[in-house]
Queue: 3 jobs
Job 1
Amino acid sequence: MAIQDIALSIVGKIAEKCVDPILRQFQYLIFYKSNVQTLSDDIKKLELKETEVQQKVDRAKDNAEEIIPTVVDWLKRVEDVKKDARTISEGMETAKVNCLNIVRLPNLKSCYLLGRRAVKRTSVVEKLLGEGQFDKVGSIAPLGKMRFSESTPSLEEGLVSRMSTKKELMEALKQEKTSLMAICGMGGIGKTTLVKQIADQVKFEKLFDEVAMAIVSQSPDMRNVQDQLAEQLGLKIIEQTDRARAERLCTRLTGRDKRILVILDDIWKVVDFESLGIPVKGECKSLKVILTSRSSDACRDMGAEIFEMHALRKEEAWHLFKEVAEISDDSALSGVAKQVAEECKGLPLAIVVVARALKGNHTLESWDRALRQLKEYTIKELEGDEDLVFSRIKFSYDYLKSAEAKSLLLLCSLFPEDYSIPIECLVRYGKGLELFPNRRRLVDVRDKVDTLIGHLKSSYLLLNDAKKKDSAKLHDVVRDVCLSIASKDEHEFLVSNSRVGEKNSYTAISLISQDSNHDLLPFCKEYPRLRLLRLVFQPGELNLSEDSFVGMEALRVMELNHSQIEFPLSWPGQMLRSLRTLCLDDCVLGTGLSSMLGHMTQLETLSLFESKILDDQFPAEIGQLSNLKLLDLRVKSSLHPLPSGILSSLKKLEELYLGSGDHLRLGRDKEEEKDALKRSHQSLILHVSRLLCMTLASYFYLGKNLILRGC
């Protein structure tokens, strides 16, 4: 029995290995038609499944998803097997041959091959039908493929200063020790544009694996900043508490072996990186952070390496302008276009706004009109612009922390374009206008002004004056914005190069005039709100009458420059009694000066710097100015010496400036002048207890007790 079972087993194995394959080969031949039909039926089922999967794929692509590789491979294999099935179906037509040109008989070899291929392809189709059960065909594609910047290489190459700053930043990003950098500059200078160009370049050079950028803004919502970064990094922050959210972001930035660049755009104040979840203190060498900000002070406080941006040079500004406006150097419009570009004063945002507004205008008349508008008005009023320049700089102004800083900036707009604004003028204006009511002493006012100037510079609303360290400059575009602000509401400044306007509600008038015609000047007119009057003549004669300042009861600061002034011999007693600051600089002062000064009992600052005193006598009435705190007698010349006793009578005097003895004599000869100077010095020490600063130029040295101050 056992032998029989063994024999049957051996026979079964032989049949399985030998007989079955032989039978299968015969089945390929015998059932070739049914095999092909079965394949055709299964292909129809596969096509239905393919349509279903393809619809899912299309919906996923519409949702910007990346298709899963296994789905892509499945669809490819479906196409391949369908192609093979078509070839097999077409082969049925060639599976017969002619016999004696009478009848067509099957070609046994062809039928065998068709049957065999059909069975094998049917097996593949059944496998594909089983694999095609996809619940999900796509996944959200990682962000970061789109360029950050829209600028072209040709545009960038023409901006040499920007390319230099970009190169410095790229080198800093490669340094292991540098983890936090800041691009600083005024609004509209191109900080965001530059950082976007850097983002594109580091991606192109594969310096970083991932780049994420978030806008912080003036009133930052830290959760929104986290969400902006997380979205670009493919991270979902589901945590609710601040600490957990920060930890989740920090883990994503540091937990993978990837180099990541984080850009925080539009920083206004110090950022708490720890609560945000961005480690910037060197904990993660593969993480770098770049900030853009209008406040270099805030960035320094965060320990950032500062990269400053300034206005474009003339040739760079023209390159940017012509690229945006699509004008060539040999265009008929290039001459006026260059002048238009120059009026943008090197500010990239202004250049782009104006160039876009004029793009497509091909008539010389339209360009001439735009040039006139830019010269006469502000960029804000240029027809066709989107008010971008104004809004950016106005935003910086609004963000200033104190009303004092805002007022000081608006005072700077009273000076001409590209003017070196003496900080000392701002001190004297500020004191006279009582901008700093808690600062009684001049030294305290000066310290406050210095602090505010520093803050305005760090906010890039004021610029350093490269030629004069005691001066500042106001960018022309910023000045336009300041004048726009100061021309309305509670301010109402008038700054003109020709004449006064029709309004009588001005609070400040700054006029540069080549004509001393009273009809063009703010005299003998009612200005009940006027607090500051600044007149600069080119040069001319000015004859003041008894009623020149009638209606200016609120006037606190007056400056008259570069004029030959004649005063009325009898001065109305109530005229200019509220005046606090009077600067008659670089003038020729004729008769009547004494009469005018005698009534200014509230005067605290009197400057006769570089003026010639041609009055019949030196104005001894200066000694009656009991509230005087600053006296600047660095005159160019005086017909009469300084009377004795005048200086010692000024009990509240804090600062005294005297010029050369060749210009203002203290006696009839050198010996008398020396004695007078010694007596004045001793008298000042004895009687003027508040004197903190006394500056003499080319006088005799009077001893160690003399306080000297350079100015």
Note: The two ends are 130 Å apart (CA to CA).
Job 2
Amino acid sequence: MEALIPVINKLQDVFNTVGADAIQLPQIVVVGAQSSGKSSVLESLVGRSFLPRGTGIVTRRPLVLQLVYTTRDDNQYRSAETGTLDLDEWAQFLHKKEIYTDFDRVRREVDEETARIAGHNKGVSNDPIRLRIYSDKVVNLTVVDLPGLTKVPVGEQPEDIEMQIRDMVLSYIGNPNSIILAVSPANMDMAVSESLKLAKEVDPDGRRTLAVITKLDLMDAGTDAIDILCGRVIPVKLGIIGVVNRSQQDIIDNKSINDSLRDEAAFLQRKYPTLANRNGTPYLAKTLNRLLMHHIRDCLPELKTRVTMMMSQFQTLLNSYGDDVKDKAQTLLQIITKFNAAYCSTIEGTARNIETTELCGGARICYIFHETFGRTLDSIHPLAGLTQMDILTAIRNATGPRPALFVPEVSFELLVKRQIRRLEEPSLRCIELVHEEMQRIIQFCGTEVQQEMLRFPKLHEKIVDVVTQLLRRRLPPTNAMIENLVAVELAYINTKHPDFIRDASMVSNITNEEEKARNIPVRRAHEYDMRDQPKSSNSTAPVAPPCRKLKSLRLLLREWGLKLRKWFGVFRITSKNMTRYQPDQQYGRMPPNDLMIVGNSKEAANSNWFSSLIAGPRPEANAPSKEMSRESSPNTTPTHQKPVNLLPEVPIQQTRKLTERETKDCEVIERLIKSYFYIVRKSIQDMVPKAVMHFLVNYVKDNLQSELVKHLYRTDEIDSFLSESPEIALRRKEAAEMLKALQNANVIIGEIRETHMW
């Protein structure tokens, strides 16, 4: 199982080259407050003094330390090229190829590398320093030393230094494959330990937390750490180990690590004899090695699965970025063909990557035709915008000066054309919606084409421009066709349409039935003759001659005229004795009292009795009016007068109750308009989608590739179109490096045999 730690070290080297944090490798993370003795613990584990020491914050960048156990006989890590064949121990930084045998130089390199990134005045950085130490005095470990937790910013540290270091620590210990080494000084109460508090946040069960108590020799006189080391104060599942660090004076005096370890063992035997064998730096190193190996064994199956899955993902990503362009003309034609195929398949619904969250392409065009456009036409009422007064006005205007016995056909045509024109606007709006969707299809024409478009932005812009121009050129002929469809319906109102004939005959039948229901007798001329003839029992009596009929009718009319003369004193109407009148402005008719009738001739009574019926009774018929006396006076000088206006002003259309005849005529027109409008609407609803498909959709599908070739396949512009985006080139390079690292990691993990894990 010792072979597992070098495997993890190799994996770290592989992924460190690409700077990838996606693979969470098992490692030990050292967490503690500032000046709690973290660096001293690491130096004790290595057996060498190689870390910067001092007061205040010293560790300002994460240090990833890999300890590799190697002997002189082990040639796995030694080579003649690097000069390590005869070395007992050496160090090597990942950012340098140089081999370090002097650990003081290692300390200086750590200081210089820290200052290069974090500055010279207490600044911190999240960029780690990676160091590997080969020795026969260490155990295989991978340890991460983090900056100490602090509260108050000093030097060039920002005001939020506490949160920066806290977030940095959480990013490392939040890795579920890491072991948390929580360091706390013995001369501080563990109840206020920041390291244990952070460890409990990410590892509430304590399954991967090991506590280390430093500075056991600095506790107050009369106190000890037995309760703490036995876990009676704060229990930790992986255990609590106490160590004794070198003091600052020991560092100044260059006290060696070996002397420090001997003093530590003596102190533990003297102060804690019962716990001496379970505390101290050597026991800590063995414990960490054991924990790390078991932890790696538990994490390895999941790690292998993770590496395999990421290999597949990055291979797909790299394929999507495409290979380097060799033949640009061929590549351009391939992209044009791919785009045309993807565009047409999106319209036809045969694309491989079908959208599942929303309608797009041909499905959306179908929705526009049958849902949006169809429902809009269905919502247009045949009589929308028409009132009964509008219909009645149209009927009266169509009759001219003659009263109409029947409903004029011209009024029906006039009104139905007005309603048919309402279908043009939604039809044109349907074209706009389809045009917008076809423009939108450019963004949904396949993942492969989209990657090519992102790879070559100038080519993408040109393709979008060509498709947009093609769609824009097809709009005028499509609009003209739709306008012609409506104009064709307006040009000829086909009242002989099979569907319309049935409705028209139905209206005629209803009208006839209404006339019959009224039962109005029509008296004919022979009925008057039969009434004037004396009744006879002989049915074969001769019929009176025509002259007799006229004579009887004259006698009847004369009798009526004598009676009316007695009642109203009717006289002859002449142009001289007729007064001017003002028409009734409210009803548009002549008031009876404004018409003056004068005269004293008996013949007038017999010949003009019908005029008296029009004029009506006049209370002061015998009293001459002022105008009549003025005209009859011989001394009056004739003056120029305006011509007499016998017609009222044109009445203003007002809402009124229609007569029975007017209501019947309006109902007839309404029924006919509804019937014919439904026929035209059905035709428009069927023809508009067909016209749009023919003039716009199918035309674009058939001519798209030729248009793209015509505008794009130009020798002088191919290089410009296929100039790759720098961002895509960088992404492809990163994906290729990551894929290579994952492949190497897969090979390394595959070398582990089952026997290595037990």
Note: DSSP finds 25 helices and nine strands in the chain.
Job 3
Amino acid sequence: MAYDDVFKKIGSFGRYQKFIYLLQTLPVVFTAIQTYLSVFILYVPDHRCANSDNNGTKLQRNAMNSSMLYSKCESYYNNLTMESIHQMFDPMTERYHPHKDFTNNLMQTKYISIETSADGNSTMRWEECKRWEYDTKEFETTFVTENNLVCSKKLYRTHAIVFYMAGFTAGSVLIGIFSDRFGRKVALMASIVLYIGSNVSLSFVQEFWLFTALRFVSGVSVGGLLSTCYVMDLELVGPGKRMLAGMVYMLFWGLGALLLTGMAYFIRDWRNLNLSLALPTILFLFYIICKKKAERIFRLIARRNNRSFEEPILPDKVEKAQKVSFTALCSYPRLLCNTVVVFFNWFVVALVFLGLSWNVNNLAGDVFLNFFLTSIAEIVGFLLCIPLLDRVGRKPVYVVSLFTGGFALLLTMVPVLLGSSDIQWMMFLLSLVGKVGSSAAFATIFLYSAELFPTVIRNTGLGFANFCARTGGMIAPYIPDLSQEVSGDFGKVLPMCIFGILAILAGLLSILLPETNKRKLPETLEDAVNFIQTKGRNDLGVEINVVPPLNGNIQQNEKLNPLNGHVQQSEESAMLSG
């Protein structure tokens, strides 16, 4: 008897299963919080060089005089008249340029840092800032303001995010292996302990290297929690409910983003914010009292669902999976081409999905409102997938999502390049449409790519695909920073344009992929080739196991077999590649 046949006896998704599902999925809320926390604790407020007469760190907006001027990164000494000073000041960048008259809206963000003459008689010279003043309108303190991670150190902020994503990658792999060897519950509790220890300790650190080290450990815990919770969730429900369970799982992620927005709005100190979000996870330590084994859990589920059963419920014998080298794809050019397309799409979807959330600081308006609406757009994208994936199909939903999001992101250049301040809201609205599209694509690609790979290489294929996604997640933080490196209006739209172009390119390549909805899935490489060439459908109501977001915990003994219109998996301990 296959493992999934158990659910014919005990029920697919009864009341008791829903209760356990809720408990197992709650930690996902806090994984989203930690992933997006950098938007707020590493927030870069308005700033400039500190006035030598001001010993504080709050920005004094009217602290200019005729003998010393201040920009974001330099101090200027001059003997110019105040009329000349106002002509040289760029209000956009808070810098002075001795060869431009900014009263005519000629904006330039790079100051020529040499001693020069402005009118033939007067000179201006400069020096780099040693102290800064920060605007405290949004936050009283952030880790950036405490450690002056601006100007020459501005990339330190991005490096800290990348360290977190690197830990995310390590956790999804290492704790996945740990889970296979010692069990789901041990891996879950280990991830929770790492999560609590790293994030509570983070609130008391001062040095950047220690901050990044703890963020790395936090990423490890989040990677472990995501993979373990996802596997446990889908092992709990019958094959006909796994797509729904996977989508609801992602809604918990969106709920975490919304919770973070509210907490950040009311708690404006980064240490208190981080601590208040980390301490509640101590309650998850009580999960250790749940000591039931799989057999006992299934018996309890059957009783709660009013199902009769014979003991034992779980199968005594399992079928070993056939092993095929992934390099065998080289003998099938079309199949190899589709595989490369899938890998590229995982890279792009993860990069755009995460990059848009980290880009909210570059959008005009309030950072809290921006992130809140972006999180709502994320949830909308997830919800759209639930009714459409089975009714419309995987491929149409995925391709249309990428095209919709990609073209919306490209169109953000229109209101910016027109230069009218009263239509800047259009740029933000288009970015929200891009977020909806990327979220829908993000949710769809898990199911779609798992159905594309034949059974004999599905684990390996999904493992490589997840690695591509993690690579995209580590590159994503650097793209929003391009707006600080490229001057003018083009710099404002450059990150959006990059995201949009990549999404459209991924959508175009995805047209090459076949539809998988309601078709018997391939088991061998030869089946996969025929699957691509066959245009018709077999209305079998196929269900597939999918992998968790950005994680590659791949079980090595998994085999999926189409039985009774569902993709059946033959081993209890390897029911899901996660």
Note: Confidence is low (pLDDT under 50) at residues 59-69, 78-82, 98-124, 536-578.
